[in-house]
Design brief:
about 140 residues, mainly alpha, Ferritin
């Protein structure tokens, strides 16, 4: 097993989990449907719990955490605020979060493929994070 691949995959998962939490935080107060709000809160909690586990693994592997790419974070903020200014409703929130989930799943699988020698338990964490993203995307379909 390659320490470099393991640490790289953990860092990307860490940044992805943080990005998901930040994105949910950004739209949560704009959601009017109570069931949708609870769904987002639950997913945020799940992301935070897995993010804490990822952070712990990073420390075990002797590495620091990774913040999301500032450009990606800024673009996400800009897109969210522009879309919400035009149409401030639950369907817009569902659309934004669904787009984010799809990008997250794509990125996580890309990094998983680029880190073939990563530790098996870290690969499983990555797949768990991708599954959380995929499930949230499916759960939000009824709000689109």
């Amino acid at each position: 097993m390659d320490n470099k691949d393991t640490v790289r995959l953990l860092k990307e998962c860490d940044a992805g989990a943080k990005m998901a939490v930040a994105s949910i935080d950004e739209v949560l107060e704009k959601v009017s449907d109570l069931d949708m709000k609870q769904l987002l809160i639950s997913s945020k909690d799940h992301h935070e719990k897995l993010g804490n586990e990822i952070h712990s693994k990073l420390l075990d592997w002797g590495s620091e955490e990774k913040e999301p790419n500032p450009v990606a974070k800024g673009m996400s903020w800009l897109k969210t605020n522009m879309k919400m200014a035009l149409d401030n409703d639950d369907a817009t929130v569902a659309d934004l979060i669904t787009d984010g989930c799809n990008m997250g799943v794509k990125s996580l699988h890309k990094y998983l493929n680029q880190c073939p020698t990563a530790d098996r338990s870290v690969k499983e964490l990555c797949l768990n994070l991708a599954d959380i993203e995929d499930q949230l995307c499916k759960d939000l379909r009824s709000y689109l």
